[in-house]
Amino acid sequence: MIACAASCIIGSAQLQAVNIVPVPTSVKETRTIVRLPSDRLGVHAADKQLRHVAQVWGESLEKPYEAGTVELESGFERIVSPVVLPEVRLCGRESDADVRLAIDDSLGDEAYVLEIAPESVVVRGGSAAGVWWGLQTMTQLLVQAAEASSPGQDLQLSGLVINDSPRFAYRGAHLDCCRHFFTVDEVKKFIDIMSLHKLNTLHWHLTDDQGWRIEIRKYPLLTKIGAVRAETKVGHYDDTEAGYDGTPYGEGCYYTAKDVKEILEYASDRQVTVIPEIEMPGHAVAALASYPWLGCRGEGYEVRETWGISDDVFCIGKESTFDFLEDVLDEVCEMFPSEYIHIGGDECPSIRWKDCPDCRKRMESEGLESERQLQGYLLHRIEQYLNAKGRKIIGWDEILEGGVTPTATVMSWRGPKGGITAANKGNDVVMTPNNYFYLDYYQTADPKKNGEPQGIGGYVSLEKSYSFDPYDRLDDNARKHIKGIQANTWTEYIATFDHLQHMDLPRFSALSEIAWSSGKTSYEDFLGRVTASLKPLYEYYGFIYAPYVFEGIE
Ligand code: ACM
Ligand code: ZN
């Protein structure tokens, strides 16, 4: 257990409790006080790569907003604390530095050791990533020290040695930019938020029924027609009275190759890998509206204006569909160097395939007995295509139903069940169970009474997220296939980046701790650490967070 309930007194100096989320593997407190300048921190980096890490860290410490509380146009409140952090200066001479960065080959890639001692503060990492994660811990400690100190006074940190490494290699956050679009700057801010929580994989949902959001040179209509819906459903999907807003949405709302490059560089500087998702064979109406020959009916498609699932999906009978998908994936692979490409696979009705002569012909010629096998046929072909380009696929857990190959990674979203089946079969798994990590779900038991904004439904409290055990009901062999966990934030009802933050914070804290830490604490201890370490961080950066748990409401 990390937290000591309050601060301890050593001589006349105050020793702050050590509060860190995610809880590190081990913390040895040395019962000393370490003073650091409050205005300027000299950082020495052992090589060019680490100098870059130090520079990015310095940029990450810049405070974006003035102190104060502001009611935003979006209806959310931004609280910014008066805390000031020192400016980071790179030091050429090690002896001049307050903080030293170094690589330690004896550590695992993402592991780090953070030593805060009177004579030096040192962050050693197994790689630049390890150093970066160590610096994220340092940021938390600096914010707490700055919060406890008077302006102009040295920052006082508890002497300690932290040894820390991640539990899972895949620590993901998913962002749906289709239902609502987020600008390049907002995606970068999302990456900042991920990074502060030691999350290292952005699953970027780029195509769906309600909007196609990535420019493909060979198919310009995808972003000319496919990015724009004529209007948007008002209120909840089930509310048939509420109607539509009468306003086109999405003109120009897509990412160019240049935008992607900028975001990937930003992510890479923060040790975040970006995995694009190109949905198939369902959730494809925006593509069908752009190029109607992609569908079984061949005409009559409009970018979807309401939520839910469409019967119109890619036609698997026509070769031209595969030509299109391969062309799109060629350009996607050019833009994204990630080992994995997410190909969707979820929520795909088969009714159009049943009535389509081309799809029936395909089933006959390939000896497929069911429409699910037809879906499996597409998946296998696309997997082979991507494998030949040196990539691997991830798909939602429905891909298990069409006869999954042993090499596909399964993303378990309909609870952990699909992930358990897949891991027992020997497939790699990322757990993203809706009942623990769908952050578009409500955060309190009584959303109306607690003033939560309109949401899709469901209920995932911070405590519920924190209770997730990724290894539940798995033997040692199957556990090896759990590559990590991820939270998904679908944005049907989330039109602004302020609202998105309100949904993700503070629930990213539970994701962070379960993804990173091998041993979690009691929920009470966890909430205490979130309150002492992450809330001040959110308020330093002016991130929008949901207040409920801090007011005792779940
Ligand atoms: C999903 O939520 N349809 C993956
Ligand atoms: Zn068809």
Physical arrangement of strands within the biggest beta sheet: 12-13-16-17-18-19-20-21
Helix percent band: 25-40%
Question: Counting H and I runs of at least 4 residues, what is the number of helices?
Answer: 17
List bound small molecules.
Answer: acetamide, zinc ion
Residues in β-strands, percent: 15-25%
Here the CATH topology of the largest domain equals TIM Barrel
Folded structure, characterized:
- This protein is α/β, with parallel strands linked by helices.
- A hairpin with a 2-residue loop joins strand 14 and strand 15 (211-212).
- The protein is globular and about 75 Å long.
- The chain has helices at 48-60, 128-148, 184-196, 221-224, 257-269, 285-290, 319-335, 351-354, 357-366, 371-388, 417-425, 434-437, 462-466, 476-479, 497-504, 507-516, 523-541, and strands at residues 8-10, 13-15, 26-36, 40-45, 68-71, 77-80, 87-90, 99-103, 112-117, 120-125, 155-164, 170-176, 201-205, 207-208, 211-212, 273-280, 340-344, 392-396, 409-412, 429-431, 482-489.
- The protein has an eight-stranded parallel β-barrel, surrounded by six helices. Strands 3-11-9-10-8-4-7 form a seven-stranded mixed β-sheet, covered by helices on one side.
- It folds into two domains: 26-164, Chitobiase, domain 2 (2-Layer Sandwich), CATH 3.30.379.10; 170-276 and 324-342 and 387-516, TIM Barrel (Alpha-Beta Barrel), CATH 3.20.20.
